[in-house]
Amino acid sequence: MQVHRPYTLHDALALMAATPTPTPIAGGTDLLVSWHHKPKEKLALLDLSQLGGELAAMRLTADTLELGALTTYWDVIASPEVSRAFPLLAEAARQVGAMQIQTRGTWAGNIGNGSPAADGVPVLMAYDATVVLQSTRGRREVQLDGYYTGYKKTVRLPDELIVAIQIPRRTRKAEWFEKVGARAAQTITKVGVAVVNDEKGWRVVANSVAPYVCRCRNLESALQKGQKFKSPEEIRDILKNDIAPINDMRSTAAYRETVLSRVLFYRLADKA
Amino acid sequence: MPAGADLPRIDGLDKLAGRAAYVDDLPTPGAWHGATVRSSVPRGKIRDIHFDPAFDWNDITIVDHRDIPGPNQLKLIDVDQPVLAAGEVRHKHEPILLLAHPSVHKLRDALRAIRVDVEPLPAILDPAAPLTPDLIQYKSDNVLKHIDIRQGDPGPVFARAAHIIEGEYVTGSQEHVYLETQGMLAQWQDGRLTVRGSMQCPYYVLDALTHLFGRSRDAFRVIQSPVGGGFGGKEEYPSLLAIHAALLAEKSGAPVKMIYDRQEDMAVTTKRHPSRTRHRTALDKDGRLLAMEIDVLLDGGAYVTLSPVVLSRGCIHAAGPYFCENIHIRGEARLTNSPPYGAFRGFGAPQTIFAIERHMDVIAARIGIDPVELRRRNLVRTGQPLATGQIYKEPTDLPALMDRALDLAQYKARTQSHAEFNKSHPFLRRGIGFATFHHGAGFTGGGETYLASEVWIEGKPDGTVELQTAQTDMGQGTTTILTQVVAERLGIPTEQVRVATPDTSRVPNSGPTVASRTAMVVGKLIEQACDDLLHQLGRKSGDPEISDDIRRHASLPGKSLVGRAKYQKPASIQWDDKTYRGDAYATYSWATYVADVEVDLRTCRVRVTDFVALQEVGRVLNTTLATGQIAGGVVQGIGWALYENVVLEDGAMKNCQMTNYVIPSAGDLPPIRVVFEERPSHWGPGGAKGIGELPMDGPAPAIVNAISRAVTTTINEIPVTPELLLKATEGRGHG
C-alpha cells in the first residue's frame, strides 16, 4: 500500500496525475469500512488531511454557499448561518451515522464515493449544487444532477479531484427531506427523498432507489404542471419511469417504490 | 450490605474505566495470532487445498484435522461435529485449516493466499423441505431430536369442541451481538495447556479439550477472562475456539490468540434457532381450552450441538402457563446445512411462547372473546397440571398478576383511546397488546441432578472468605449477587467476601452459567456451603461476629477452612425423561408484559411507545441489577420482534455487519417500566428465582399482538420488518 500525503493542492493534483491513480481519502468513513478484509497490495491513497486553505473552507455569500472538499457534516451542523440558509443540509447531516462519522465524513467524499444510499447527496442535488473538479489540466464545474452515469460511475476523470461544492442561494417555496432507515439513528437509508421548490421549479431527488442518487424528473414535471395527487398509487405510477429500485439485503424493490410514493404523497398533501 | 440491598456492581468501575482486561487486552509477549480457513459452500467434498507458491509459508503454522491428537470431535451432547473438517464440509464457514503467525498482517495475507477446492454436494437449507436420500446426513431422517409430551387424549376431544382454531407461527434467527466478540488465548504454562478467554462455561471448555486431545484433565487449565456479554453465545461455541487456539499453540510452541472480528463472529458463530410452530386447539363455547395439539419444528443447523435441549425447553413451554387436560406436543429439531444454531437467552422458550401467546390472541379474535378474559379462564390455578403434569403449587395468582400489569399499562383506557385515534389519523395506527408467560429456572428435568454441581467457600486467615464456583460474570452481575448471598448467610460485610475467578485449576464445577440457574440453583448451594463453613466453626447462620472465628480457624497451622455443598435432588421433584412427565423445573418465574405500539402506514415502521414488564421472580436480590437485566432482555426481545433479521445466503448469515444487522438504537426504545412482585421461593437463596431468560420471552408476542390490533391484520411471523408488514397489509389500502 502507498500513502501520499501532499501539503499543497498543487502537489495533490500532480499526484492525481500519476500512475497508478491514487484514491483520495479525507474522513475515511467509506474507505475504512471492512478495511481488514481488503487486499491492500495495489492500493494507493492520497491523504487530503493536510490540505488547508480553500479545501477546508466553508463560505456563505449573498448568492452562494461554497463547501470546500474537506467540509464535514459537522461543519454544517455547527454553523447556525449555514443551517439557517440551507436547513436540509443540517437535517441530512444529523442523520448520517453518529457524531463520530459526522465529524469526519465530508460532503465531497459522500459525492465521490458514489453510493446510491449516500445521505448527503440528495439534499445537495435538490439544492441544485455544482461540483467543482480540478486537475493539473485545469478546473471545471459540473452540475451534481449530471455527475453520475451509473452505479459508482461518474463524469470525474481519473486525475480530477473534487475541490468544492457550490450551492446557489434562492428563494424557496418548499423544502423537505425524509430518510427512511431500519431504525431511528445510525442507519443506512432504505428510501430517502429531498424535495425543493424554488424559483427554478421543483426538484425531487431520491436515494437508494436507483443505481445512483437521481432526480425524479417525471414527478418534477407533474408537480411543475400543478398536478394534484389523489393517492400514493398515482405518484407510484409516475415514479416508475424515474427510479429503478432493487431487492438487496437491506430491503425490497417493492418496499422502496411503495414507501417513496407514500412519503411523497403525504408530504405533498401537507406542504405542497 | 445485605442481600436485597443495591450493592453496586463489583466489576462495574473497572469496566467503566476501561481497566478490565478482556482476553484481547491481556499482554502476552511473543503471542502469535490465529486465523481460520473456512468452507465457502454449505456442503461438499474437499478436493484440494492450494497454497500460493509465491507466498512464503515457512514461518506460518498450519493445522489441519491430521494434527488432532485424539478424536476429531467437539464433545457436547453428541460427538458428531468435527473441530476441523476432514474430507467433507457440512456448512458454509465450517473450519478447515488453522493458521498462526506472529504478524496479524502476514496472517491476513496468508488467508488470501489459500484456496480450497470443494466439490459441492446437495445441501438442505430449509428444515421443512422434502427429504431425498442424497440430503440425509444424520441418522435415517436428519432429525437431531424428537420430543413427545402427552397429557390426556386430545384426539377425540376435537369432535365435540365448540371451536377448533389453528395457526402457524414463525420466528427468525437472532444474533447475540455481545459487545466483546469471541476470543481465546492458549499457551503452555507450568506444563499445562492453559486457555484463557471469553466464556460462560469453563468446565465445558475443559471437557472438550480433554476429549479432543485424549489427555487427562490435569493437562489443561481453563480460566475465564472478563466477558463482555454472552447471552448464550458463549455457552458452547468457546469450546471450539479454545480447541482451535490450543491446537495452534501446541503446534507452534507459542502462545496463540484467536480473536474474531465482528464480521467473522457474526458469520460463523451460533445463533438462535429459527422455528415454526403449528397449533390446533379445541375450546368449549366459553373459551376454555379442551385440547391442544402443538407441533414445534426447529432448524438445528449442521450438527447436533445443543439442539436437543433447546427443543426440550421449547416444547415444555409450548402450551404456555395454561391448564388444559388434553395436550400433545410434538417437537423436532432437524438438520440443515446452516452453521449450527445454539444457545441463546430463553433457549427455545421464546420461540414457542411467541407461538402460544400469538395463538391466544388469534383464538380470542376468532371466537369473539376478550383476550384478557380468554387468558383469565385458562391460566393455571393451584392444583392444576401444566403440560408435563407438573402440578401448580406456586403462591402467585396468575390472573391477578395479569390484571396488575394491565392496570399499570392503562390497558383498558388505551384500547379505547387507540380506537378513537385510529379512526382519525391519516396514516398512524396505535395498538396495545400483551403476553402472559412463564420461564423455568435451572436445567430442564433431571439436568441439575446430572450436573451435580459443587461449590466451595474458603475462610482466609485475614477473616475474609473466598467463594469458589465456576459461575461466570458476563455482565449480568453474578459476582455481585453471589457476594450478597454469601454476606447475608454468613452475616459478614460484603467487603469481606471475594469471588474467585473461574479457573478450573482451583474452583469446583458448579455447572455452566446458563439456564437462569446461577442465582437460584448455585445461590442455594452457596447458602448450604456457608452453613457447612459455619458448622465447622460451631456456629450457625444468624450468629453475630463470625469474622473473628473465621480468622482464628483459618489461621490454625495445617488447617484449612472450606465450606462445601453439592447439589442433591430434592425428594419432591419427580421427572421421567422417557415419558417427559413430571416436574420439568423446580420452579418458574411468572410474568405479564404489555406493549404499546404505533405503526406508520406510510413506511410500515413500528415504534414501541410504552412497555410494562411485570414479573414474579421470588425475592429480588439486587433491584438495580435485576431491573437492568429485565430491561436489557426486553430490548433484546424488541430487537428480535421488529429489527433483527438474519439474512441467509447458502444457509449462513449474509448481513454479518453491524450496519446491516439492525439492533434497536436508544432512539427506538420506549420507556420500559420494570415491576417486580416479590414472593420469596424456598428454591433459591433468600427466596430468589431465576430471571436471566424470562424477559426474552414476553416482548415479541406482546408487540405482535399490539401490531395485529393496530393494523387489524393477523401477523404471525417475526421479525416484523417494515417489508414484512407492507406485504401483510398490502391491498388493504394505506389509510
General description of the model:
The complex is a heterodimer of chains A (272) and B (735). With 272 residues, chain A is α+β, with helices and mostly antiparallel strands. Chain A has helices spanning 9-16, 53-56, 73-77, 80-85, 87-94, 99-102, 107-113, 120-126, 217-224, 232-239, 253-271; strands at 2-4, 23-25, 44-47, 58-60, 64-68, 130-135, 138-143, 148-150, 153-154, 161-168, 172-180, 191-198, 201-207, 214-215. Chain A has a domain at 172-271: CO dehydrogenase flavoprotein, C-terminal domain (Enolase-like, domain 1, 2-Layer Sandwich). Chain A is 31% helix and 25% strand. In chain A, α10 (232-239) crosses α11. The mean pLDDT of chain A is 95. In chain B, the strands form seven sheets. Chain B has a seven-stranded mixed sheet with strand order 3-5-1-12-9-10-11, sandwiched between helices. Chain B has a six-stranded mixed sheet with strand order 7-15-14-13-8-28. The radius of gyration of chain B is 26 Å and the shape is globular. Classes of the chains: A alpha+beta (272), B alpha+beta (735). The A-B interface holds A 33-34, 36-37, 39, 180, 182-188, 190-191, 232, 249-252, 254-255, 258-259, 262-263, 265-266 and B 108, 112, 261, 263, 426-427, 601-605, 643, 647, 654-655, 657, 659-660, 662, 664-668, 721-723, 726-727, 734.
